[in-house]
Specification:
about 210 residues
Length: about 210
């Protein structure tokens, strides 16, 4: 039976020691370099990330904005935390809607924001998010979903502001765009006209 020299054992032990040290170094480096996730009760820090991400989006850097938002870990329970989660998902949607081939991701975040707005029973948030869902649906080629979203936005905003608020004109314009995308020119024109009438009524200088 062939004997294995002590030198070979020393070499193996030495190699494993360096491997272990390398692994420890990598783990320590990861813990130092990775930004820790934060929770929604850390509202001051989250607000800072939201403001930074919004600033990035304003200068057309949605990828950098997303990287900031990914540092936030959401676990909303209270109404305050749910409002924060609504803002985070909405901003995620706004960012992904500007990134190529990420419209579906944007739509999913807007949908999550809608669920939160429904829990909060907040008509303002619901109206706003239905509008974003409508726009995103048109971008995805889902005209029927867009029409439902804009119609829902009209219901919410009419309950809040009455029939002649400028925001409702935007929803009728969105409906016109949805019909136009399906080449239904008559319905598109009808909704564009409604948008113009409301816009004129809501303009104090009109």
């Amino acid at each position: 039976m062939q004997k294995i020299s002590k030198g070979r054992f020393y070499s193996i032990d030495h190699s494993f020691s360096w491997l272990y040290l390398s692994l420890v170094f990598v783990i320590i480096s990861l813990n130092v370099n990775c930004s820790p996730q934060i929770t929604t009760n850390n509202s001051t820090v989250i607000q800072d990330y939201l403001e930074q991400a919004t600033s990035k989006l304003k200068i057309n850097k949605p990828e950098e904005a997303v990287n900031l938002l990914l540092k936030i870990k959401l676990n909303p329970t209270s109404q305050k935390e749910q409002r924060i989660a609504y803002a985070v998902h909405t901003l995620f949607g706004d960012c992904y809607s500007r990134i190529n081939n990420k419209k579906e991701v944007a739509f999913n975040h807007y949908t999550e924001a809608k669920k939160i707005a429904e829990k909060l029973n907040d008509l303002q948030k619901l109206g706003d998010i239905y509008h974003k869902l409508g726009v995103c649906s048109i971008d995805l080629g889902k005209a029927d979903d867009a029409k439902k979203a804009f119609s829902s936005a009209i219901i919410c905003k009419t309950r809040l502001f009455g029939n002649n608020h400028i925001s409702i004109a935007l929803e009728y314009n969105g409906l016109g765009n949805a019909f136009f995308s399906k080449h239904n020119l008559n319905m598109a024109l009808e909704n564009y006209k409604k948008a113009l009438i409301i816009a004129d009524k809501s303009n104090p200088n009109g």
